[in-house]
Amino acid sequence: MKFWRKPFDADKIKIPNGEIHIIADRCKGCSFCVEYCPKDVLELSEEFNVKGYHPPTVKKPDDCVACHLCEMLCPEFAIYVTLKEDEQTAELAKEGEQ
Ligand code: SF4
Ligand code: SF4
């Protein structure tokens, strides 16, 4: 996405990086997560799960911004996202300070 100007606080904002977890055997291959990911992080794999569907796979792991949209859209609760381990530790430390 291209902005017409740079936000004033752009240097203070850290973009989170998500870790994607896929429960392949729950997936029904609807592809909602693949189609609607704003960062085009996922694709359907060539493999079959126990139900005979192609579950998603992560094609660009460093591009996930942990927006959780895939998680919210999945009708089978087959995908969820956590922050990468180091970011999670930093987040917990911040909460501990408050
Ligand atoms: S959390 Fe957002 S950016 Fe990451 S894979 Fe899901 S939809 Fe894409
Ligand atoms: S939205 Fe859920 S069920 Fe649909 S392809 Fe993605 S992981 Fe599978």
From TrEMBL:
<dbReference type="InterPro" id="IPR050572">
    <property type="entry name" value="Fe-S_Ferredoxin"/>
</dbReference>
<dbReference type="GO" id="GO:0051539">
    <property type="term" value="F:4 iron, 4 sulfur cluster binding"/>
</dbReference>
<keyword id="KW-0479">Metal-binding</keyword>
<feature type="domain" description="4Fe-4S ferredoxin-type">
    <location>
        <begin position="18"/>
        <end position="47"/>
    </location>
</feature>
<protein>
    <submittedName>
        <fullName>4Fe-4S ferredoxin</fullName>
    </submittedName>
</protein>
<keyword id="KW-0408">Iron</keyword>
<dbReference type="GO" id="GO:0046872">
    <property type="term" value="F:metal ion binding"/>
</dbReference>
<keyword id="KW-0004">4Fe-4S</keyword>
<feature type="domain" description="4Fe-4S ferredoxin-type">
    <location>
        <begin position="54"/>
        <end position="84"/>
    </location>
</feature>
<dbReference type="Pfam" id="PF12838">
    <property type="entry name" value="Fer4_7"/>
</dbReference>
<keyword id="KW-0411">Iron-sulfur</keyword>
<dbReference type="InterPro" id="IPR017900">
    <property type="entry name" value="4Fe4S_Fe_S_CS"/>
</dbReference>
<dbReference type="InterPro" id="IPR017896">
    <property type="entry name" value="4Fe4S_Fe-S-bd"/>
</dbReference>
